[in-house]
């Protein structure tokens, strides 16, 4: 495996490498809780997250 795909991601798509704190912030902002990050063989990982429903105040009639 070469670094070419990663370089293309940065150059063409404005991508960046994310760390655990980055994923936690991103997921929290989208209404999820980061449960864990599981490493896998190779350069990728599995991110496990749980949806945290937003409790909207009910309108009083």
TrEMBL record:
Gene3D superfamilies: Vaccinia Virus protein VP39. InterPro entries: COMT-like, SAM-dependent_MTases_sf. One of its GO terms (molecular function) is methyltransferase activity. It comes from the Bacteria. This is Methyltransferase.
């Amino acid at each position: 495996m070469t670094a070419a795909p990663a370089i293309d991601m940065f150059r063409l798509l404005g991508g960046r490498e994310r760390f655990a704190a980055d994923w936690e912030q991103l997921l929290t902002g989208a209404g999820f809780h980061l449960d864990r990050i599981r490493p896998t063989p190779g350069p990728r990982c599995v991110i496990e997250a749980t949806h945290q429903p937003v409790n909207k105040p009910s309108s009083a009639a």
